[in-house]
Amino acid sequence: MATKRYDAIVIGGGHNGLVAAAYLARGGMKTLVLERRNVLGGAAVTEEIFPGFRFSVASYVVSLLRPEIIRDLELPKHGLEILPLDGTITPLDGDYLWRVNDHAETMRELRRWSRTDAEAYEEYGRLMVDMARFIKPVLSIVPPDPGRIDPRDWLGVLGLARSFRDLSEYHQSVFVQLMTMSAAEFLEQWFETDPLIATMSASGIIGTFQGIRSPGTAYVLLHHYMGEIDGAFRAWGIPRGGTGGISEAIASAARAAGAEIRTETPVDHLLIAGDSVTGVVTSSGDELTASVVLSSLDARQTFLHLVPSGTLDPQFEREVRRYKFRGSSGKVNLALDGLPDFTCLPNAVTTEHLRGAISFSPSTDYMERAYDDAKYGRFSARPYIDTIIPTLVDPSMAPPGKHVMSCFVQYAPYHLEDGREWDDAQREAFGDAVVDTIAERAPNIRDLILYRQVLTPKDIEVTLGLSEGNIFQGELSLEQLFFFRPVPGWARYRTPVKDLWMCGSATHPGGGLMGAPGRIAALEVLKALRYRRGAA
Q1: Collapsing DSSP states into helix, strand and coil, what is residue 128?
Q2: pLDDT number for residue 267
Q3: pLDDT tens profile 132-162
Q4: Domain ranges of the chain
Q5: Would you say residue 76 has pLDDT above 60?
Q6: Angle at Cα 241 formed by Cα 238 and Cα 247, nearest 5°?
Q7: What values do phi and psi take at 423, rounded to 5?
Q8: 40-66 CB burial, b ≥16 within 10 A, e <16
Q9: What does the pLDDT average to over 487-503?
Q10: Of the candidates 387, 449, 404, which has an alpha carbon nearest to the alpha carbon of residue 91?
Q11: Helices 217-225 and 115-135 meet at what angle, rounded to 10?
């Protein structure tokens, strides 16, 4: 049994854990990252699943990655390059709805459907940018503890309250709507074109076990609208080399700052002395001690699996067990021999319509029926699918002339009806449903498939360590945000175990390829240690 001492140990080499490690190492701490898999990135990972074909296996696009992290860690110097995706096309029966990055082109397309919607689209876009600018500071603040009246804890909230006071009455009312309404009902106030409403409202259900008409999904719409690339809100892109390119760039920045990173090193349990964590024990029996330990795992994995039984207060443990995961997403990755031919654009002479997202969301009723299946424990027979073909932007992901197709799917419930478990037969049936749905709009897809990888929520849990396969380490529902995330009273990255901190998506401001939880947690650790040294 080996023993080695560090200032900080970070459990989990996902992008948040790597961000935390980079900031801690930059702050002068001797930092170690422990990742159980043989590859870094967690859900933001690129793997060669089939010979010559590289996939962003889980997370597949980037928008929310915080600009301050890119700047502070100088990620472009470490290989980060984000390639823009050009808009979204929704294929329909004999027609399509196509919004692109060129504003004038999108206006012409929307006028083809509805002049009223084209006019509303511009006003809606300006309004959502205003809302994103208003709420964006929340992504960088530490939530206060509602049980404490320390004014310092509430400074960020007071600043937000002042900003809210300065909003016009109209903007205030819109913000309240975003916090309380469903995505579909919010959008229906603006638009009349059903495929447009369906496609835009899909952003409100990503990673949630809710439908587009479920209250609270309008906030998730805003959450994704806060993404930006080069200062442009609601811009999306793909990292060169897949999402693993982001994780590798962050890991490179962490190593450059002095952090040590080990893969294939699972943590078995935490070392606890009295009320404090003193280190970790790996699955091979190595004891590694540290002044602080940060977990980028979710609350269930951290508190119920790593913390020794009997350590936590029973009430806190009950709160952890009440935390909702309810994984509802699956992923299908396809290796293709060519490009799909959509019947709505037969014999297209260019591939421009395939260079952005392809959204299988033809109507609001379609989206609700997909949710209806999930409510009763079945994967959607005709699911909502968000598809991209990254090889049209980054050809290095496949052999010459070949392509990869990434299909994010709602809904695939973790808990199936009648207590059934996800097995090989269920996985293949789910994959078939996804391919069948695509084939309704692009019949040649079946002839193009060379290989396919199907990930159910159970696969995501087993492979990536995300409880119940929830891609955000817990639902982004209103009762699980801000100072309720992950447990009321424990949203400030600290935990009931002294010197044990949380730094993953289970904490504020939540999920997505953002990095904010890792950054804020690390800065809080550094601040606490400076205070401790000053007090001593």
Answers
A1: helix
A2: 98
A3: 888 888 888 888 877 676 667 777 777 888 8
A4: 3-49+59-82+241-324+475-535, 100-234, 325-464
A5: yes
A6: 85
A7: -130, -175
A8: bbbbbbbbeebeebbbbbbbbbbbbbb
A9: 94
A10: 387
A11: 80
Q: How far apart are CA 460 and CA 430, in angstroms?
A: 14
Peptide bond before residue 486 is cis, with ω within 30 degrees of 0: yes
Helical (H) or strand (E) element with 478 = none
Among 246, 325, 254, residue whose Cα is nearest residue 513: 246
Say how far apart CA 41 and CA 247 lie, in whole Å: 5
Question: How far is 468 from 482, CA to CA, in rounded Å?
Answer: 22
Domain 3-49+59-82+241-324+475-535: assigned CATH number:
3.50.50.60
Write out the two tokens for 465. 């360590």
- Expressed in angstroms, the distance from the first to the final Cα of the chain is 34
SS3 533: helix
- My answer on whether omega of the bond before 23 falls inside 30° of 0, hence cis, is no
Cα–Cα dist 125/252, whole Å: 37
Amino acid type, 396: S
The pLDDT, as a whole number, for residue 84 is: 85
Angstrom CA distances, 340 to 54, 55, 56, 148, 270, stand at: 19, 18, 19, 57, 50
Strands 357-360 and 88-91: parallel
pLDDT averaged over the chain? 92
Backbone angles phi, psi at 326, to 5 degrees: 45, 60
Hey, is 104 helix, strand or coil? helix
Q: Are 185 and 177 in contact (CB under 8 A)?
A: no
Evaluate whether 497 touches 275 at the Cβ level (below 8 Å).
yes
Q: Residue 140 has what pLDDT?
A: 85
List all residues 6 or more positions away from 283 whose beta carbon is below 8 Å from its beta carbon.
36, 265, 266, 267, 268
Cα separation, 230 vs 250, in Å, equals: 18
Question: Is residue 124 classed exposed, middle or buried when 0-12, 13-18 and 19+ CB atoms within 10 A define those classes?
Answer: middle
Task: Name the phi and psi angles at 219, rounded to 5.
Answer: -65, -40
Output the six-digit token pair for 132: 């994103």
Q: What does the block give as tokens for 427?
A: 């996985």
Which strand ranges, in their side-by-side order, compose the sheet holding 384-388? 96-99, 88-91, 357-360, 384-388, 403-410, 329-336, 449-455
